[in-house]
Amino acid sequence: MTRKKIVAGNWKMNLQLNDAIQLIDDIVSNSKDLSGVELMVFPPALFLLEIAKIKNELTVGVQNFYPKESGAFTGEISITQIKNCGASHVLIGHSERREIFHESEELIKQKVDAAILHEIGVVFCCGEPLHIRENESQSSYVKQQLIDSLFHLSDAEIQTCVIAYEPIWAIGTGRTATVDQAEEMHSAIRSWITEFYGIEIANSISILYGGSCNASNAKELFTCQNVDGGLIGGASLQAESFITIARSF
Ligand code: PGA
After folding, report:
1. Confidence at residue 1, expressed as pLDDT on a 0 to 100 scale
2. Candidate from 166, 175, 209, 237 with most ligand 1 atoms within 8 A of CB, to mutate
């Protein structure tokens, strides 16, 4: 079974509207001949409508939402609102949401369920902080994140999800996981999917690597058997590096 290759750009809280439009224009015009790779972008939600208008073949998602249908939740946006404005995917469980905004496993699980209910694709982020890596308990840590918030899904539901492994010590630090570290965790994640859902489903789910992945190291990371693409932060803010990464398979 061939898995989808995906390169996703997480723009985080960067760019002004004009820059975002320029960036999506540049990505669209420089990726026309790219085949076999799905490009996703996760702009600030405020820019969603404008980006959705010009996205062409690109998949557009948001970085966050609140898992209630509607109501008195000042400042939040719902899954139906983001769907209504052109998003087909969401990032869930990003370490910045977990750490800075104290999102619990339970809230993350509710977000997964809300996205599934409304047929929005989930890019589920997991990954360990530095102290967990240093005491070599990263495997049980990441497995627990998956069990707590993702592995309750049914066979059909989990197959609509993408998993992104992002070691926190590698995010925005310039310190990428080595090829061995990435492959070790990605193959472990695939073995846990196999344990819960069987080998066929495990082989169908794309697992992305994230954390200081850039135009220079993507090629090496993408040679790993179980790395199906990347979730890119800093290097997704320029069309050239983002497209170079997408051409690194
Ligand atoms: P980075 O971010 O590529 O800037 O390390 C990745 C992410 O947080 O998704």
Report:
1. 60
2. 166
The DSSP bridge partners found for residue 41 are 9, 60
Whole-prediction pTM: 0.97
pLDDT 10s digits, 66-85 = 999 999 999 999 999 999 99
Centroid of ligand 1 to alpha carbon of 171 (angstroms): 5
In the chain, where the domains are located: 5-246
pLDDT of residue 14: 98
Long-range CB contacts for residues 39-43, cutoff 8 Å, separation at least 24: 39/6, 39/7, 39/8, 39/9, 39/242, 39/246, 40/6, 40/7, 40/8, 40/9, 40/89, 40/123, 41/8, 41/9, 41/11, 41/236, 42/8, 42/9, 42/10, 42/11, 42/89, 42/91, 43/11, 43/15
The domain 5-246 belongs to what CATH superfamily?
Answer: Aldolase class I (3.20.20.70)
Ligand 1: which residues within 6 Å by Cβ? Answer: 10, 166, 171-172, 210-213, 231-235
- And the tokens for 170? 């590698």
Question: φ and ψ at 118, to 5 degrees?
Answer: -100, 15
Rounded Cα gap, residues 53 and 87, in angstroms: 11
Q: Which two tokens stand for residue 37?
A: 């790779």
